[in-house]
């Protein structure tokens, strides 16, 4: 009997991870309390209070103001959130000084023991433990650990606002949210099963070079030059090498030669070509002067993997403000012009035209559960490289919306020689298979 490849209806209950002991009580007893371990003070002083003391309180978090004894539910919830962030590696932030494994293990172990004691104390004093749902961050981390795929959790119920996102009383679950979790979890399971059947691809480098890549702009420049010749010499358009379609399309119009209804303004493309004649043989200049033309690298993507993105670029002489290249991906269904274009990274260009620099970033993509391509061609996605406007959605980085950060400088200041995407690099827990996408 042949094996059916139809995916059965799945029970997503195993994917609904409802919180791990966000401690709370119905009755807050103050008759006894649990002390926070002494090891926390030197740890805070060394790694945390520079940003989170009473004077700074970055992110509205004042660690000096937290009580050092757990007597009521709120105390336990606050310290539980601190423990969650330590365990997740979010505290201290990656760019700050990091504790040694021994220091971190000591503080996490001591704080865990105190919270376990607090849990028992609150339960014994007549309270009840509040069971909470896990938040988006925890859900995504759990799916990655269990199934080896990075998940875009935007369709999950919203997390509570505020500095803590693991407080039980704020992480309740109503019937509508439960339905959303079930629906989403079923899609996640289908996505995981799809990728579990796919073989791993070999790591490859996809490079796109931009030397002499202005064919379209050169064609338009040449056409506009022929249109100009008609206006100056009164020769018939056919005599200068224009078809009727080209004449109607590119003749901007005068009293003698009126504009046709088919006219399209392409002067920005021609201007881009003319102004950068010295650079076309080397690469592509940023920003680009039209809405539909951008540069990027397109390659097959795997939800179980991450990638390395590279660019080789240089900046023209005479600029005073450092130039930045921004990497952007469109959200599904919106395209680069949509309001949800998502930046994934940026870097300062340190090279020059004659001595360009190479820059690299590791990209950890996330995918919606609907990312289940049946062929390699369907799995292809694009990463766009643009001059960074210092904020704004993807389309705002293009020329029409671009506000020069240095008035008086050249229109285009960054030369991109090539772009690369290397991968896939698989997570250790990513599933293997011998079935091909093709």
Could you spell the SSE succession in H and E letters?
Answer: EHHEHHHHEHHHEEEEEEEE
How many domains is the backbone divided into?
A: 3
Biggest sheet statistics: 5 strands, antiparallel
Secondary structural class: alpha+beta
The counted number of beta strands is 11
N-to-C terminal Cα separation, in Å?
A: 24 Å
> Which residue ranges are poorly predicted, with pLDDT under 50 across at least 5 consecutive positions?
1-10, 12-31, 433-438
**Beta-strand content estimate:** 15-25%
How much helix is in the residues?
25-40%
Give the overall shape.
Answer: elongated
SS field, number of helical segments? 9
Q: What would you report as the Rg, rounded to the nearest angstrom?
A: 29 Å
Overall mean confidence score, pLDDT: 79
Your description of this structure?
- There is one protein chain.
- The protein is α+β, with helices and mostly antiparallel strands and 438 residues long.
- The protein folds into 3 domains: 12-196, no CATH class; 204-210 and 285-426, Jelly Rolls, CATH 2.60.120; 215-275, no CATH class.
- 27% of the residues lie in helices and 16% in strands.
- The chain is built from 9 helices and 11 strands.
- It has helices at residues 40-47, 49-52, 73-87, 101-124, 136-147, 175-196, 215-233, 244-250, 267-275, and strands at residues 34-35, 69-70, 204-209, 284-286, 295-300, 305-315, 324-329, 342-348, 357-363, 380-387, 414-426.
- Strands 3, 4, 6, 9 and 11 form a 5-stranded antiparallel β-sheet that branches. A 4-stranded antiparallel β-sheet has the order 5-10-7-8, with no helix packed on it.
- It is elongated, with a radius of gyration of 29 Å.
- It starts with 33 loop residues before the first strand and ends in a 12-residue tail after the last strand.
- The relative contact order is 0.13.
């Amino acid at each position: 009997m042949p094996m059916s490849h139809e995916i059965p209806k799945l029970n997503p209950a195993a994917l609904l991870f409802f919180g791990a002991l966000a401690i709370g009580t119905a009755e807050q007893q103050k008759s006894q309390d649990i002390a926070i371990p002494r090891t926390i003070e030197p740890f805070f002083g060394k790694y945390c209070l520079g940003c989170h003391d009473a004077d700074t309180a970055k992110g509205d978090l004042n660690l000096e103001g937290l009580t050092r004894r757990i007597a009521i539910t709120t105390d336990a919830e606050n310290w539980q959130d601190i423990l969650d962030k330590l365990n997740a590696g979010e505290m201290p932030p990656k760019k700050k000084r990091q504790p040694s494994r021994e220091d971190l293990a000591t503080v996490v172990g001591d704080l865990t023991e105190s919270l376990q004691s607090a849990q028992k104390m609150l339960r014994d004093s007549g309270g009840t433990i509040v069971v909470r749902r896990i938040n988006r961050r925890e859900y995504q981390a759990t799916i990655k650990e269990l199934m080896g795929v990075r998940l875009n959790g935007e369709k999950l119920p919203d997390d509570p606002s505020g500095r803590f996102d693991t407080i039980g009383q704020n992480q309740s679950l109503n019937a509508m949210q439960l339905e959303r979790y079930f629906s989403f979890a079923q899609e996640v399971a289908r996505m995981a099963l799809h990728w579990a059947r796919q073989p791993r691809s070999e790591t490859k480098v996809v490079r796109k070079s931009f030397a002499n890549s202005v064919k379209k702009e050169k064609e338009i420049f040449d056409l506009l030059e022929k249109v100009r010749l008609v206006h100056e010499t009164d020769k018939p358009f056919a005599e200068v090498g224009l078809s009727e379609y080209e004449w109607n399309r590119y003749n901007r119009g005068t009293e003698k030669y009126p504009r046709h209804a088919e006219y399209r303004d392409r002067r920005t493309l021609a201007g881009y070509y003319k102004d950068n004649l010295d650079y076309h043989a080397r690469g592509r200049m940023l920003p680009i002067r039209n809405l539909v033309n951008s540069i990027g690298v397109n390659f097959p993507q795997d939800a179980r993997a991450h990638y390395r993105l590279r660019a080789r670029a240089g900046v023209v002489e005479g600029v005073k403000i450092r130039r930045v290249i921004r990497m952007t991906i469109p959200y599904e269904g919106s395209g680069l012009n949509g309001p949800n274009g998502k930046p994934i990274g940026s870097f300062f260009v340190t090279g020059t035209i004659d001595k360009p620099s190479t820059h690299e970033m590791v990209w950890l993509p996330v995918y919606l559960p609907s990312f289940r391509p049946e062929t390699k061609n369907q799995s292809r996605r694009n990463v766009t490289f643009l001059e960074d406007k210092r904020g704004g959605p993807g389309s705002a980085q293009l020329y029409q919306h671009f506000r020069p950060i240095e008035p008086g400088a050249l229109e285009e200041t960054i030369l991109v020689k090539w772009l690369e995407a290397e991968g896939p690099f698989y997570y250790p827990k990513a599933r293997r298979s011998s079935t091909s996408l093709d």
